[in-house]
Specification:
heterodimer; A: about 325 residues; alpha/beta; seven-stranded mixed beta sheet; five-stranded mixed beta sheet; 11 helices; about 35% helix; B: about 300 residues; two-stranded antiparallel sheet; 13 helices; 7 strands; about 40% helix; binds thiamine diphosphate; pyruvate dehydrogenase (acetyl-transferring) activity (chain A); Transketolase_C (chain A); oxidoreductase (chain A); pyruvate (chain A)
Chain lengths: ~325, ~300
């Protein structure tokens, strides 16, 4: 079976959507060269009028995309570094996201924000290692964190077709991943639809992004000990509460593992809702980065702050006890 | 100009009475800018506006009845009561909204101009209105750069009313606005923003040049706001302008100057027409229904979001 890499999947999604819809265009730094790999070759096919290299003006080009979207285009904005989200939070959270409500539904802002290489980047230190998807979920921007190449393809397709702003985070640790899949099996993945990656009856593990394959490894390793259901929410906003609720209500036990900061993070939200609504039989467990974590440079310090397989094993055993 | 003036006088009264919540940022004194520029705009041209946006929105053609209803939070308002004074918009008329964040509209206007070019509407113009304070916002300068780089049909209109809230322009802005814009490659000029004919003349040239592909333009309009920054300002007891200064500006009232150029009967006719419009707007707005609180988050998304458990 042919193998599809994560980066190629994103590239393929952009290529296919640009072919399908003339209004789709790609804006970002070095996109005509495809420095991050995501946009490689697109300018050769669609020209630099649609794959547009931006000056180093993130705030302006983020809002340029807003204006263009209101005027009928469907821009995809690529950010070279996920922490640039802090620079353009105004433009996304305060301008694009609020436009539809503030104008009483006169227009919406169909922009897609792509954040490749999100999460710890091994030695890239404080300003290049954040994984800030929880922030966008908090303000209500539709946000996907695909865990596989086919999901990267399918979620990006849906993001571009969505009438609202949508952010897509591509985790660093998955950028090199690949998957055996036939081209014909690639399809749009609806936002707000979780994937049950492994069925189980004793405990539900909700894992985000690059932690999905780790959760699957742990579930396989603990198979003799417990039957573990692994769920990938795929979008952190909106959350597929129906799929999560069914699983958690059935198993009565929950562990959430996500690579954002603990305080007000995605994991907290899943755990709280599970407690309120899903009839847990034991208190839930959360694995995440610590409160307000800033990733240090030294690799052992960097790794020490990230949720990992060992921690997940411990948490699963704790809720099973 | 008379419509904006009367609309705003009416709003001032209603803001102080509490009918308009949140107060307003009065545009009174600056009318010549919105009117002089908008005189050259078509319905398919785009504008982005400021927190002081009533003048721009009305000059671009928004219905005063629905504009007032918006300020009253009514469901018949321009934004169905979801935007209020600082976000008034009529996207169908190219009004991409007033904006509560200083300078935020400039790159949105650049995006609209860029999109128009992509869609083949080469003669469509986008106008970004902003104050002197916005010239210190990085995003505005980024927008200058991009518009100039791609020679986009954007007219940047800086309404220099001398103050950013209480900060005098000479304590907030280094250098000269026109030279600053010219430094980015914009065709830049300054004009007396208290004279509607002068603004119309300069804006006419700039808009026409934009339509024929001459690239972005910048117009600094020297103007003055007669009232405080915001309607609650007087409650704070702040005073940063002396009375003589305000009186001097009022002596150059753009409405008085324009009236002197018109036949008295014509001016009286306009006044009567506007008075009727305002009365009509008040009747419409004050009798319009509000919205059901259960619908408070309607229009947040154009697409769908599944309900949360327990919601
Ligand atoms: C980015 C930003 N900073 C501060 C504020 C608070 N604020 C609102 S209006 C204003 C002054 C703006 O001055 P100017 O751009 O000259 O416009 P004017 O009020 O004179 O029309 C300030 C500081 C804001 N809304 N946005």
């Amino acid at each position: 079976m042919p193998s599809l890499s994560y980066v190629a999947a994103v590239n393929r999604a952009l290529r296919d959507e640009m072919a399908r819809d003339e209004r789709v265009c790609v804006l970002g730094e070095d996109v005509s060269q495809g420095i991050t790999g995501l946009t490689k070759g697109l300018a050769d096919v669609y020209g630099t009028g649609r794959v547009v290299d931006m000056p180093l003006s993130e705030q302006a080009f983020t809002s340029l995309a807003t204006g263009a979207a209101i005027a009928g285009q469907r821009p995809v904005v690529e950010f070279q570094i996920p922490s640039l989200l802090y620079l353009v939070f105004e433009q996304i959270a305060n301008q694009a996201h609020k436009f539809s409500l503030m104008t009483g539904g006169q227009a919406s802002v169909p922009v897609t924000y792509l954040f490749p290489g999100s999460g710890s980047r091994s030695g890239m230190a404080g300003q290049h290692s954040d994984h800030p998807y929880s922030l966008l979920a908090h303000v209500g921007v539709k946000t996907a964190v695909p865990a596989t190449p086919s999901d990267a393809y399918g979620l990006l397709l849906s993001a571009i077709r969505e009438p609202d702003p949508v952010a897509v985070f591509a985790p660093t640790l998955l950028m090199g991943a690949s998957e055996e899949i036939d081209d014909g099996d690639l399809a749009a993945v609806p936002l707000g639809s979780a994937r049950v990656c492994r069925e189980g009856t004793d405990v539900t593990v909700v894992a985000v992004g690059h932690l999905v394959p780790i959760a699957l490894q742990v579930a396989a390793a603990l198979a003799g000990e417990a039957s573990i259901e692994v769920i990938d929410p795929r979008t952190v906003y909106p959350v597929d509460w129906e799929t999560l609720g069914k699983s958690i209500t059935r198993t009565g036990r929950l562990v959430v593992i996500d690579d954002s900061n603990r305080m007000c993070g995605f994991g907290s939200e899943i755990a709280a809702t599970a407690v309120e609504e899903f009839g847990l039989t034991v208190p839930p467990m959360r694995l995440s980065r610590p409160d307000g974590a800033v990733i240090p440079y030294a690799l052992n310090l960097d790794h020490a702050l990230l949720p990992d397989a060992g921690g997940l094993v411990g948490a699963i055993r704790a809720v099973l006890r | 100009m008379r419509l904006i003036r009367e609309f705003e006088e009416h709003c001032l009264e209603k803001a102080l009475a509490g009918t308009i919540v949140g107060g307003i940022h009065p545009y009174i004194g600056q009318e010549a800018v919105a009117v002089g520029v908008s005189a050259h705009l078509r319905a398919d041209d785009v504008i982005t506006s400021t927190h002081r946006g009533h003048g721009h929105v009305l000059a671009k053609g928004a219905d005063p009845k629905r504009a007032l209803a918006e300020l009253y939070g009514a469901s018949t308002g321009l934004n169905r009561g979801r935007g209020g004074s600082m976000h008034a918009a009529d996207v169908g008329l190219g009004i991409y909204g007033a904006n509560g964040i200083v300078g935020a509209g400039a790159p949105i206007a650049v995006g609209a101009a860029w999109a128009a070019r992509r869609a083949g509407h080469d003669d469509r113009v986008a106008v970004a209105f902003f104050g002197d304070g916005a010239l210190s916002q990085g995003v505005v300068l980024e927008a200058f750069n991009m518009a100039a780089l791609w020679s986009l049909p954007v007219l940047f209109v800086c309404e220099n009313n001398g103050y950013a809230t209480s900060l005098p322009v000479d304590r907030g802005l280094a250098g000269d606005p026109v030279r600053r814009a010219a430094g980015f490659g914009l065709t830049a000029a300054a004009v007396d923003g208290m004279d509607v004919e002068a603004v119309a003349e300069a804006a006419g040239q700039a808009v026409a040049a934009c339509r024929t592909g001459a690239g972005p333009h910048f117009l600094e309009c020297a103007t003055y706001r007669f009232h405080g920054h915001h309607t609650v300002e007087h409650l704070m007891g702040t005073k940063y302008r002396d009375d003589d200064e305000v009186a001097g500006a009022r002596a150059r009232d753009p409405l008085t100057r324009q009236r002197a150029r018109l036949a008295p009967e014509a001016a009286d006719e306009v006044d009567a027409e506007i008075a009727a419009l305002i009365a009509e707007a008040e009747a419409f707005a004050s009798s319009s229904p509000g919205s059901d609180p259960r619908d408070a988050l309607d229009y947040l998304y154009a697409g769908t979001v599944p309900a949360r458990p327990g919601a």
